[in-house]
Amino acid sequence: MPRFLAEFLRRSFLVVMLAGSALITAASLPYFDFETLPPFVIEKFPLRFEALWLWSLRLHVASAIVTLPCCLVLMTRTLQRRPLWHRWLGRATGVLVLLFLVPTGIVLAFDAKGGAVVTAGFLLSAAIVGVGTVQGVVAARARDLVSHRRAMRHVVAQMSVAVTSRALIVGLDMLGVHPDTAYVIALWVPVLASALVVELSSVRSLFVASIHTIERIHRDLSPLALRMRVRAVVRPVARPSR
After folding, report:
1. HEC states along 46-90?
2. Each residue's pLDDT tens digit, 27-37
3. What's the whole-model pTM score?
């Protein structure tokens, strides 16, 4: 893939995700109205652990509103060129993900619409986010930037499911797909597709890096390069004056 096309796709992804995050934030504000409950919440009742579920919902939404934009900002070249800012924003975001986003997502998954199939999908996505965040932090502390990028791409990809899943639900509804079936498809397809795209892009990055390394070694070991190095190293011996 040409470099300009890859950069265009990357920037387009960030813009679309930021726009989707803004729309989700606007739609989620009624969850924080403690006087009334939105229809989505009311249709969930009765719940076995009602108070736990409500607090988990609000904490999950609040942490998602913050962490998704932060993860997207961390993916930009601007912040990646500023290691100190990148490090501290990454740490703060990682804490929110591990302490609030993932645990509350697990609680909500067990009462998800669609039954056990959907619950399994949410749990898989939460596991990828949690494991990816831990691996990303460990890799960053070890200065393993390749592993760090791969792990954090998985985190961002799974968090983007919140946007792509909603868009897919709208599309399936326009096609007349039954809501229960559409909900299952709109969850599992983005979860699996996001993980697959990250793995394929990681394999491609490693392949391209290996090709560049081989080409550099070949250039360094070419006869002309060796002769040039010998000439640069060997110094003419000064003849003794008569």
Report:
1. CCCCHHHHHHHHHHHHHHHHHHHHHHHHHCCHHHHCCHHHHHHHH
2. 888 888 777 77
3. 0.79
**89 close to 74: Cβ distance less than 8 angstroms:** yes
**Domain extents in the chain:** 3-233
DSSP assignment letter at 122:
H
Cβ contact 74:153 at 8 Å: no
What contacts 161, CB < 8 A, 6 or more positions away? 125, 187, 190, 191, 194
Measured CA to CA, the distance from residue 85 to residue 80 in angstroms comes to 8
Do 191 and 158 form a contact (C-beta atoms < 8 A)? yes
Q: Is 114 left (phi over 0), alpha (psi -120 to 50) or beta?
A: left
Query: In this structure, what token pair is assigned to residue 13?
Result: 């992804």
